[in-house]
Recover the amino acids of this structure.
């Protein structure tokens, strides 16, 4: 008897759903935390299998192509490492009584549903389904941001919910407009929402309608990317929720919205008469970079500091994709991957630190390299990486972006470099106190696994020193697809 | 000349815009809820009419959801919450009615000017439907930003969502409309009523979002 062939697409989508159902039913956090890790591992392995096995033909709902496979693998990898980090983090939260076992069950189930939502958003070939999946992923994070039920957490969740809903509403309106633009060309019904069909026929769409659609999509999904001035939800949501959620918010959920934008940007680019979407992205990207860079100076809460840094980096990435062209797109892709890895590593460190010190206030966290060497130096490496210093991966991508921009638009490059330097200054200023100041607060040893943090940092370092040739070829190919 | 079916759907969509305007100047929560129920009822009629003229029976489901869920269940539930919290006498617009109405007119003018221009080649029904739908969306957004109270922000969000349903049903043959309206209903039911209001009341004895504002930012 033959076993049914293993289907990695089904694996990536169904494992999280099955795990969510199971985790909602099972009691006991030790078991469920391990199960959470195990399910994330299986999802990651399925995603890895997507790379090796022949891909399914694009269907009405599911699509696997060279672009989204990068996102899926990254997503499930960070999902896996975060689940490992989460296991030790959550045990501590139970001990201190910030979470109860009932909430924990809810938390783990939501974690897997969120992974499902994000993977579905990446894989969906139907722009309506993609919208539903992004909404699902957002809602689960709203619930998790509010899980501590403190005033601040509820306010953060409420703000996130309201702004996220407005964003999601605009994105839906944009999606409807794309359908309206496609209907006369592709035909009525299902077909006019299938992305692979849309991209083939996009040159015949009504350009005016497509322009308006893109503006709505950009505002809608841009809210979720956290672009200034639509970013108001982001720092609160990062600061008040559990730290594993801050890590996936910064490392993954922002990428989901970015991915949706990229898909629609490709659609716009396929229509010669539509406005070039790049200009809008360049402006918003630079605005976010500059705004966040200056805001970094005034932060007193360590999680908020890195939340603003995420806005800054999303600005850089959106700018890179807005510039377009093989080199800038390559830099954008690389930067996105590096930012996801680095930022989640930083949040792992910050989560452990704030648990030990019992505070998120930067003023009260001092001299970490002395009291907690592994944690402190991990944070130092992470911040050095995120500030864009060599030899780490983000330096590579920022260098590529700056040099390619100088060749094409020197003035824009000047603004870009200025923003990068301002942010660099703020981060070093904060880091010196936190890492090297006079030790303050609890010196209790951390009971946490540093494996996820150092795994991410090692990858970032390797990418900065030597990017393997197959990865380069792959990214170059994807950069070309993005146009 | 236009046909009768065009005139009916046109006037229903126009009615929605008008009722959105009525929401802008309600300063009591109960009356805001009543106007919202009327809004949802008009949406249900409009969607049912679209289902009839497009010969798309699945849209009747969306119409039924609008009627039962949004025009009856949600207003009744919110009524109860308001009563329990004792906030029914609150007058809670953050911005004066005059400026709000002017802003509303500006938004409607903007959406008509925008949508009618870009959809010049689409058929007349879809065109005007879309223009009206965008007006309803923007007016719902205006309700959300001019109110401080969590209940009325939710009402604003539902009005906004009604505009989206109007747009989706007006786009002939669009798939997933029913699913999207179901998803929205679940969203509203679970998140808003169940969890947030319950928790916000429990923690603050108030649903005035203004009371939450002191926790914004860098307190610790």
């Amino acid at each position: 008897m033959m076993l049914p062939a293993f289907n990695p697409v089904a694996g990536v989508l169904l494992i999280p759903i099955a795990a969510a159902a199971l985790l909602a039913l099972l009691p006991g956090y030790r078991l469920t935390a391990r199960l959470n890790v195990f399910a994330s591992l299986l999802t990651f392995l399925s995603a890895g299998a997507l790379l090796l096995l022949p891909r399914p033909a694009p269907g009405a709902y599911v699509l696997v192509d060279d672009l989204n496979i990068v996102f899926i693998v990254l997503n499930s990898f960070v999902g896996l490492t975060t689940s490992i980090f989460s296991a030790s983090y959550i045990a501590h939260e139970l001990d201190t009584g910030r979470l109860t076992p009932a909430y924990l069950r809810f938390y783990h189930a939501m974690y897997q549903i969120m992974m499902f939502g994000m993977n579905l958003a990446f894989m969906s070939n139907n722009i309506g389904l993609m919208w539903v999946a992004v909404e699902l992923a957002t809602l689960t994070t709203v619930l998790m941001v509010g899980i501590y039920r403190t005033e601040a957490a509820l306010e953060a969740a409420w703000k996130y919910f309201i702004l996220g809903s407005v964003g999601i509403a605009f994105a839906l309106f944009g999606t409807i407009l794309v359908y309206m633009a496609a209907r006369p060309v592709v035909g009525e019904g299902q077909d006019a929402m299938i992305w692979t069909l849309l991209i083939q026929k996009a040159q015949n769409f009504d350009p005016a309608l497509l322009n308006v659609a893109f503006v709505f999509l950009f505002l809608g999904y841009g809210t979720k990317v956290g672009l200034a001035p639509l970013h108001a939800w982001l720092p609160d949501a990062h600061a008040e929720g559990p730290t594993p959620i801050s890590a996936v918010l910064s490392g993954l959920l922002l990428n989901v919205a970015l991915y949706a934008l990229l898909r629609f940007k490709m659609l716009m680019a396929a229509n010669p008469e539509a406005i070039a979407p790049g200009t809008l992205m360049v402006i918003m990207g630079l605005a976010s970079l500059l705004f966040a860079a200056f805001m970094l100076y005034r932060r007193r809460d360590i999680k908020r500091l890195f939340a603003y840094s995420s806005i800054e980096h999303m600005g850089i990435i959106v700018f890179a994709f807005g510039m377009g062209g093989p080199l800038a797109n390559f830099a954008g892709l690389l930067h996105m991957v590096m930012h996801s890895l680095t930022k989640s590593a930083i949040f792992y460190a910050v989560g452990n630190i704030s648990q030990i010190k019992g505070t998120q206030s930067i003023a009260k966290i001092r001299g970490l390299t002395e009291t907690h060497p592994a944690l402190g130096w991990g944070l130092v490496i992470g911040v050095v990486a995120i500030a864009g210093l060599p030899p780490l991966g983000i330096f590579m991508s920022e260098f590529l972006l700056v040099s390619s921009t100088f060749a094409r638009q020197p003035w824009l490059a000047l603004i870009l470099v200025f923003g990068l330097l301002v942010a660099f200054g703020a981060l070093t200023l904060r880091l010196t106190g936190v890492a090297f100041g006079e030790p303050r607060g609890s010196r209790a040893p951390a009971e946490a696994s540093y494996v996820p943090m150092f795994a991410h940092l090692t990858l970032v370092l390797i990418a900065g020193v030597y990017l393997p040739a197959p990865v380069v070829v792959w990214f170059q190919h994807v950069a070309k697809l993005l146009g | 000349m236009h046909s009768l079916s065009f005139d009916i759907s046109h006037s229903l969509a126009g009615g929605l815009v008008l009722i959105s305007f009525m929401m802008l100047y309600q300063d009591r929560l109960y009356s805001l809820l009543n106007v919202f129920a009327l809004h949802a009822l008009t949406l249900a009629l409009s969607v049912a009419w679209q289902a009839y003229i497009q010969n798309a029976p699945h849209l009747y489901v969306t119409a039924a959801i609008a009627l039962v869920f949004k025009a009856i269940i949600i207003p009744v539930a919110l009524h109860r919450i308001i009563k329990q919290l004792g906030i029914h006498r609150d007058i809670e617009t953050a911005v004066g009615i005059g400026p709000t109405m002017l802003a509303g007119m500006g938004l409607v003018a903007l959406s008509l000017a925008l949508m009618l221009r870009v959809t010049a080649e689409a058929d007349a029904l879809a065109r005007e439907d879309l223009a009206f739908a965008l007006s309803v969306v923007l007016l719902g957004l205006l309700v959300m930003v001019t109110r401080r109270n969590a209940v009325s922000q939710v009402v604003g969000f539902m009005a906004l969502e009604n505009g989206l349903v109007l747009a989706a049903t007006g786009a002939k043959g669009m798939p997933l409309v029913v699913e999207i309206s179901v998803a929205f209903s679940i969203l509203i039911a679970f998140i808003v009523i169940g969890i947030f209001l319950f928790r916000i009341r429990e923690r603050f004895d108030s649903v005035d979002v203004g009371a939450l504002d002191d926790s914004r930012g860098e307190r610790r």
User: Anything to note?
Assistant: The mean pLDDT of chain A is 88. Residues 276-483 of chain A form one domain.
